[in-house]
Amino acid sequence: MTYSAPKGTKDILPDEISAWQKAERVFSEVCSEYGFREIRIPTFEHTEVFQKGVGGSTDVVRKEMYTFQDKGGRSMTLRPEGTAGVVRSYIENGMSSLPAPVRLFYMINAFRYEKMQKGRYREFHQFGVEAFGSAGPNIDAEIISLLVMFFDRMGIRETRLCINSIGCPECRAAYYEALNEFFADKISGMCPDCNERFKQNPMRILDCKEERCGVFTSRAPRQLAFLCENCKTHFDGLKSTLDALSIAYTVDPGIVRGLDYYTRTVFEFVSDHVGTQGTICGGGRYDKLVEMMGGTSVPGVGFAMGVERFLMEASSQNVAFSEPATVKIYIANLTEETAALCQRIAFSLRRLGIGCETDLTGRSFRSQMKYANKAGIPFVAVIGPDEAVSAKMALKRMSDGSEMTFSFETNMAEIKRHILNN
Ligand code: HAM
Question: Contact 145/241 with Cβ under 8 angstroms?
Fold first, then answer.
C-alpha cells in the first residue's frame, strides 16, 4: 500500500527548491531594507481569533477553516491567513508601546478547505507584511512599493496593480443601505449563500462566484461612489503618492476583498497566468481590527502574496532561478581502504566552508565520475593508495581538464583559495 499527499497539498521537491529559497531570501532582504522585522506566529490559534479577526460572514470562516478540538476540548483552527494571528501577537506582546509604525513581515503556510483549481490549494504559502500605527495613505503606498521592489528584484514584469477604497464604517452605512435596496428584489433569485450574506453583510454578496449571482453583482452599486470626505482625501493621497513613485495602477471599484477587516485602501496585484481570478497578492488597510480584537485603537495595513501563484507567474514569464552549485569538489575514491581518507578530506574541506561530496554507496570509479559530471560539480580529486602515501591530490577543473596538485595535509587553505578563484 502506498499513500499520496492529501488533496490540495503538494510536496516541494528538491528540483523546485531553489526558486522558493531565492524568493524567501529576496523577500526578507527587501522587507529588511524597508525596516520590517520578521515575526513567526503559531500554525494554529484559538478558533475565535479567526472568527473575530477574519470575520464570521466571510467564506473563509464559514466554509474553509480546518477547525478541530484538541485533547483539552478547546476549539483550535489551522491559520487560514496571517493577519489575525499577527494582530493577536501585536496585542498580546504589547507592541503598541513600540515606536510607530511597527512593521512586521512573515513567511507562512496557511490552510483553507477550498475547491481545487489552478493556483488554489488547501495548504499554500504566503509572504506578508503588516504595519501598525500609521493612519495616512503614505504607508499604504510604501508597502505597495515594497512589493514592486520585490517583483523587480525577482525579475517579474507584467503584473497589474488594482486599487480601490471601501471606505470607513461611517460611509459604509449609506453604502450598505444602497446595497440592501439594490438586492432587495433580486435576492430571491440568488444562491442560498447570498441569501445568508444578505442578512449578515451585504458587501459579501459581491464575493459570490456563482454565475446566476454574477449577473446581479456586476451591476451592484460600488462603495467608491459613497466615500465620505475623509476617505476620499485618503484615497486621493494614496493615488498621488503612487504617482510620485511612478507606480502604475488602475482604480478598480469592483475590488472588495474576501475578508471582513478591511477599511479604506484595498489593492491586488493580478496577472493572467495564475488561474483563479488571477490574484497573486492582496492587501489593504484595517483600521478597526486591533481594537476589535481587544487592543487599543491602532490603524493597520498589510498584504499577503500567494507564493505558489507568484512562482507560477515567474515560470510563465520564464524567470530562471538557478543558484550557483554549493558542492564544489567531488572526492572520487578508488579502493575500499581509502574510503575513510576520502571522508576525512571532505570533512576538512567542509570545515573551511567548501561544499564537498564523496562516494557513500561503494560505486565503481566510473560511475562516481559519471555522477560528479551529471551533478555539475566543478572540481574532482581522485584518491587511491598512491595519494594515501604521498598525502597529495590532483585537483581537476572539469570545465577544461586542467589540474593542480596540493597536499591535503598541509595545503587545505590553498585548495580553498584555488577553488574560490576559479
Ligand atoms: P487573501 O486575499 O485571502 O488575503 O490572500 C492573499 C493571497 O494568498 C491571495 O492573493 C493568493 O495569492 C493567496 N491565496 C489565498 N488562498 C489561496 C489558496 N487557497 N491557494 C493558493 N493561494 C492562495 C489575506 O490572506 C490577507 N491576510 C492579506 C492581508 C494582509 N491583508 C492585510 N494584511
Answer: no
Does this model's pTM top 0.85? My answer is yes
Residue 101: asked if its preceding bond is cis (omega within 30°), the reply is yes
Q: Report the residue among 41, 60, 79, 81 best suited for mutation to probe ligand 1: largest number of ligand atoms under 8 A from its CB.
A: 81
Distance of alpha carbon 191 from alpha carbon 208, whole angstroms: 9
pLDDT at residue 184, rounded to an integer: 93
Binding site membership of 114 for ligand 1 (Cβ less than 6 Å): yes
Q: Give the integer Cα–Cα distance in Å for 396 and 225.
A: 72
Atom of ligand 1 at shortest distance to CA of 81? 25
CB 288, CB 264: distance < 8 Å: no
Check if 104 has its Cβ closer than 6 Å to any atom of ligand 1.
no
What is the structure's pLDDT at 277? 65
pLDDT > 90 fraction of the chain, expressed in percent and rounded:
85
Predicted local confidence at residue 422, as pLDDT = 79
Whether pLDDT at 150 is above 90: yes
CA distance 401 to 380: 10
DSSP string, 224-247: GGG--HHHHHHHHHHHHHHHHTT-
Amino acid at 372: A
144 lines ligand 1 (CB under 6 A): no
